[in-house]
Write a structure and sequence with these properties.
Length: 373
């Protein structure tokens, strides 16, 4: 019987749970997570975390306990058949994962994009195409907006070898959610990641979205205008490579804007969500302010990716090894690195030479892909 890897989530949130479950499948190792979301005001599994657990359990036909709302202890055993016993993350030791078609209803405005983030790394151990249709929130707080996932993260992962695409039926804003998106994920082999420098700046792509109920107020247009007026385009010699304003169906009124910065070695994304009483122009300005701060960073240690992409790339980094310079060692970055280490990966975080620099300074995260089982 395989040894159960015991993890403590008392100082972490939902990201710790999602990442642990994904690593459990990739390594084909059973895990037990105690004190689930222990540092949150309401600990235990919420709808969106339970949806991730149930989805992975269905795909793997896993043995699970604690799959219920509010559960603070979860045990998960993927139980995949091993292949040739190799000792790496490529699926040659952890076993092959069957594909298939699955429908998931989160039941609230819980984030569909966070659920998809837990599935994307599984492409490296898939045996056939995996199709997952999720009903829930597509553009909600504390998670990547849909356009960030499909226009920032997914294109970068495709450059590394991932074969994946989204099909969007409708968007889901807070509070009703009700969005419907399908992920098509095919067996893939990733290239090692080497994102250590920000390349020459190329331009900005803008994606502004409004629900149909707000179309008569030109919200998507006004968000875009607010962003463009605030962006430091001339100062950095940038041009607008793409501008897309979209009106979408959704059970709840809502808006979102995503700005993508293209540079010689990759991309970075910055976003903002609309909310009642907030002028559309201000929503665009908020996203632009985040991009302007990123552009204003100077020196040889400028990160090529934004804070959120930095964290989301770490599991992919472990699959084939490599390096990524992160803008800061956020709590999510630190938590993910600790989990990778717990599962046997060799992780190194090299900070700036300035000993006074803290977690808010750039750091180079390196991961070796081959680990002992």
């Amino acid at each position: 019987m395989p040894t159960v890897r015991e993890l403590d989530g008392s100082d972490a949130g939902g990201q710790f749970v999602r990442t642990a479950l994904t690593l459990s499948v990739l390594k084909n190792e059973p895990v037990r997570i105690d004190n689930v979301r222990g540092d949150r005001p309401t600990p235990g599994l919420r709808h969106q975390h339970l949806a991730v657990l149930d989805t992975l359990a269905a795909i793997c036909d896993a043995d699970v306990s604690g799959a219920e709302l509010g559960a603070e202890t979860v045990a998960f055993d993927p139980g995949l058949e091993s292949t040739d016993g190799a000792t790496d993350w490529h699926g040659r030791g952890p076993g092959r994962l069957p594909g298939g078609e699955y429908d998931v209803d989160i039941g609230t405005a819980g984030s569909a994009t966070l659920l998809f983030d837990s599935l994307l790394p599984l492409a490296t151990v898939l045996d056939s195409q995996l199709t997952v249709t999720v009903t829930g929130g597509t553009d909600v707080s504390f998670s990547p907006p849909l356009d960030y996932s499909r226009y920032v993260k997914l294109p970068l992962l495709r450059q590394l070898g991932l074969t994946a695409a989204y099909e969007v039926d409708r968007r889901g804003f807070y509070p009703d959610g009700g969005g419907r998106v399908t992920l098509q994920l095919a067996p893939s082999s990733l290239e090692p990641i080497d994102l250590t420098e920000r390349g020459a700046l190329e331009g900005v792509r803008l994606y502004s979205t409004e629900s149909a109920s707000l179309a008569d107020r030109d919200v998507a247009f006004r968000q875009a205008e607010g962003a463009l007026e605030r962006l430091s385009l001339d100062e950095f010699g940038l041009e607008v490579l793409e501008r897309r304003e979209t009106t979408v169906s959704s059970p709840s009124p809502g808006t979102a804007i995503v700005l993508r910065l293209d540079h010689g070695s990759g991309v970075a994304g910055f976003s903002a969500l609309g909310k009642r009483g907030k002028p559309a122009e201000r929503v665009g300005e908020d996203a632009a302010d985040r991009l302007n701060r990123f552009l204003a960073e100077s020196g040889p240690l400028r990160a090529p990716v934004d804070r959120h992409l930095a964290d989301q790339l770490l599991v992919s980094l472990a699959l084939e090894g490599g390096r990524v310079r992160v803008p800061a060692v956020t709590d999510h970055v630190a938590s993910s690195c600790e989990l990778l280490t717990a599962f046997g990966a060799t992780v190194d975080i090299a900070r700036t030479d300035d000993e006074r620099a803290g977690s808010a300074e750039p750091a180079l995260v390196s991961v070796e892909s081959t680990v002992d089982l």
